[in-house]
Amino acid sequence: MRVAVDAMGGDKAPDEIVEGALRASNELGIDITLVGKEDVIAPLLSSKPSQRHIEIIHTPEIIAMDEHPATAVRKKKDSSIVRGLELLKEGKADAFVSAGNSGAVMAASLFVLGRCTGIDRPAIGTIIPGKEGPVLLIDAGANVDPEPVHLLQFAFMGSIYAREVMRIGNPKVGLLSNGEEETKGNKLTLQAHKLLKGSNLNFQGNVEGRDVTKGTVHVIVTDGFTGNVVLKTVEGVAEDLVSIIREEITSGILNKVGALILQGAFRKVAQKLDYAEYGGAPLLGVRGNVFIAHGRSNAKAIKNAIRLAHEAASHRIPKLISDNNIIVTGKEMFQQDL
Amino acid sequence: MRVAVDAMGGDKAPDEIVEGALRASNELGIDITLVGKEDVIAPLLSSKPSQRHIEIIHTPEIIAMDEHPATAVRKKKDSSIVRGLELLKEGKADAFVSAGNSGAVMAASLFVLGRCTGIDRPAIGTIIPGKEGPVLLIDAGANVDPEPVHLLQFAFMGSIYAREVMRIGNPKVGLLSNGEEETKGNKLTLQAHKLLKGSNLNFQGNVEGRDVTKGTVHVIVTDGFTGNVVLKTVEGVAEDLVSIIREEITSGILNKVGALILQGAFRKVAQKLDYAEYGGAPLLGVRGNVFIAHGRSNAKAIKNAIRLAHEAASHRIPKLISDNNIIVTGKEMFQQDL
Fold this sequence. Notes:
Two copies of one chain form a homodimer.
Chain A: E1 2-6, H1 15-28, E2 31-36, H2 38-46, E3 54-58, H3 69-75, H4 80-89, E4 95-98, H5 102-112, E5 123-128, E6 135-138, H6 148-164, E7 173-176, H7 187-197, E8 203-207, E9 219-221, H8 224-249, H9 253-261, H10 263-273, E10 281-284, E11 290-292, H11 299-313, H12 317-323
Parallel strand pairs in A: 1-2, 1-4, 2-3, 4-11, 6-9, 7-8, 7-9
Antiparallel strand pairs in A: 5-6, 5-10, 10-11
Helix pairs in contact in A: 1-11, 3-5, 4-5, 6-7
EC number (chains A, B): 2.3.1.274
Pathway (chains A, B): Lipid metabolism; phospholipid metabolism
Family (chains A, B): Belongs to the PlsX family.
């Protein structure tokens, strides 16, 4: 198993990306191909100890974070994103990780790898640390205006990922809506509800915003617009709350003593909330193991994304999605039990 | 100024509602009309000291929390919700507060009070405690499938409310989307963005999920589906985080000592996050001051909702909305500066 890593993508590229790859290589023994400008990557590697599991593929072009995805992918065939995905296609790598322009990663994945059988729209699945266990939110941003049947496809892909990689038997699926009752929802979710109810998935009905971090279901299905807003809301609330608490508990000497006593406890809480612990988000529905890491990824986040990509690759999720999917129209779709 | 209160609505009705009304009356000196079953309300009042500012209007019918809103409103003309709103219409009260079936409150408000001039769809504005100050999120659940022009109307109503009641000069308006760039959004928000840009509102462009609790803008505009999901996500994350922290800091004797030292600080944080501090959410766009309180409202939340309703009533928001609104089609809509 070999993981290709986009060395040029992300707010902290290339330094933190290369450092994360080094850690994954040295600490976890994972074979890694760093894709990007060799003259930039090589010096970062040579100053470090052992890099026996790392190779470099030189690509002269870079797709910037703010470039128009489709245009950039069409023009920059020698970019780290396009070339990294071609390594997957050619069987020279088993998974690809990028913290770069996520729109470009999606566009290039469709272009280079193509879609799984029966999947119209690939989707991003993001793991959110729930109180009672991790929750896979799908779609977290790939499709802003999906049709109801696409939400059914997201639920199907999310269930396979949850079963295989998150190791949850018969994963519970919830549809994100504005109320638990079946009658609650907008046009999209009301129709998607019917499709999900008629499927063989372990559908639990509608869930609400407060279920996102509860862990009452394992897979939460939503459109990419709502999913993206919700994901960033969760991150924002957690950050703000931690900063409000920090301000309060460090005002005054006595409070500082209390804070000192509790620093171990606070560290555990911070760890539970740290996105870097969870690595990347799988792009599900393309013919290859593609992982999108947070644009802000530091070395630790990249190391964990590589670990996750490496583990997921062995489950051959794209093949499972293609093989179990009996094409696309509602009730006929999921004849086989998951 | 007199506030009519639905004594029969909410998970904790009638006890906590009546208690909240008593506190608003005794502590704040607000004149209150409790609307509901007299035989239930009167005994709750008679056991208490002074109730000089409180009167009761007897209504024999109750609309339950899970009843179909439009049907219930049509059938139950003698319910506390319908009669309470008629008091507004008849000028016998200046504001109405209910923690009951919010769909029924909206339906009855449209039916009894009607819409403000130029407003197609009334919307719920909810105040979220932001890090840098309160944020008005509109729509928080009234319209699950609005058109772009409705989002413009929400922004207009939210700006008036923020200026008058929240006392923010020239309030900043943001459009909730899946990215800050103007090109990010679904069909609805891409079109709404253009309308907002062409208006005289203080439009700051798109904002993201993490801005909801930051307070970077004063008014965040969104459809009622996304708004409801986001609102409940914020509540859920805050609750879960507080409970995770509580678990960690109370495990072990030393931690308990630290927690004891910090209890004052924690209380301050809890207060900042307590929805009960913020009272109710205004239903904007109907011809009357209607406030929807949280279904879980306790006496404190009801007291604060009554305080807010009482204060808002003096600003005559519905009249300001009707008078300043130069009808409905995009660019012509907001000729006057706010």
